[in-house]
Amino acid sequence: MTRGIVIWMMVGVLATGMACVAQTKAPKPALVVLDKEESELVIVDPRTLQIVGKVKTGPVPHEVAVSGAGKIAVTTNYGAHQDGTTLSVIDLVEQKEIHRVDLLPLRGPHGIVFLAGKFYFTAEGSNAIARYDAGKNQVDWTMPTSQERSHMLVVTHDGQAVFTANVVSNTVTCLAKDAKNGTWSTTQIATGRGPEGIDLSPDGGEVWAANSGDGTVSVIDARAKKLIATLDVKTKHSNRLKFTPDGKLVLISDIGNGDLVVVDAGSRKEVKRMNLGKSAEGIVIVPDGSRAYVAVSGDDRVAVVDLKTLTVIGTFSTGKDPDGLAWVE
Fold it and tell me: Do the beta carbons of residue 281 and residue 197 sit within 8 Å?
């Protein structure tokens, strides 16, 4: 074999290797899924439903949020027994954990949302809400809810109010910031039994909380901070609740029987109920409102739901016990 042929073959092999590496880079858009049992974040190409990367996190991550630029994901490492004390900060481009944030004395981080460069999260084991500044790599704000098991949360678009569902206390807490002096006030709003899933309507007018203990949804006027309606959606154990981007539909996952319940937000009536499998949990809806991805944790799969036809159009596996989901633009 001549020297020229050897060089040509080496260049070909190198180019092929580079192509393989390039194919593993996180696509845009992308879907990220947390596998709780394996303590890892999985990056999925939504066009092919293929896994393009996996990153180890802290113990038993439950929820994840992604920065506006889609570069950073932060997972709440809940732990096996509400004993987790860390966040994992993951570079989605390089597909690696870049920070393991120590939260002590806060314990049991769970729900998390991103707004204006910061990540707001619940510390369920400490009955508190806190905020992580990704630029400074530090927790820069903590506020007690004074309620038991502050589980999931939403933040208003202007960042002036935070609502959290408190599972044991049967309440939603509203923490509101005074625009003049920067102080925070607390309002406790009674709900049905065991509120878990919670979301803010796209117009900012209402907060809906899915009550896992009695099959109802509590509808709260976000500005008046008052309960205005209770809907009987007949769930066995509701887990997550999400508005579609246009505000017309609300999706509720039922971990008790694996159903996905679709409610018309205007009429507040059920539109459809579909069984996804065993233990429907985390939900994420793509920004154009065309599809939803729902973690079916008991089957170790994620279901793809077409929101135009309200049908399941596919499923795929990412690993053991998927739950928290987020979309990367």
Answer: no
Strand arrangement of the beta sheet that strand 301-306 belongs to: 280-285, 291-296, 301-306, 311-316
First-to-last alpha carbon distance for the chain, in angstroms, is: 49
Q: What is the mean pLDDT of residues 13-41?
A: 70
Q: Which residue has the tokens 């994992």?
A: 88
pLDDT tens-digit profile of 178-187?
988 989 999 9
Rounded CA-CA distance 162/153 in Å is 7
- Tokens matching residue 237: 């154990």
Q: pLDDT > 90: what percent of the chain?
A: 90
Which range marks the domain in which residue 329 is found?
Answer: 246-329
Token couple for 189: 């709003």
236 part of a folded domain:
no
Q: Residues near 266 by Cβ (< 8 Å), separated by ≥ 6? A: 248
Separation of alpha carbons 170 and 154, rounded Å = 17
The full DSSP string for 98-162 is: EEEEE-TT---EEEEEEETTEEEEEEGGGTEEEEEETTTTEEEEEEE--SS-EEEEEE-TTSSEE
In 27-74, where does DSSP find H-type helix?
A: none
In a domain, 111, yes or no: no
Calpha distance 93→151 (Å, rounded)? 29
User: Which amino acid makes up residue 211?
Assistant: N
Q: Find where tokens 């070909």 sit.
A: 12
Give pLDDT, residue 24: 63
pLDDT in the model for residue 124: 97
* CATH number (domain holding residue 294): 2.40.10.480
Tokens of 314: 């596919």
Q: Is the pLDDT of residue 289 over 70?
A: yes
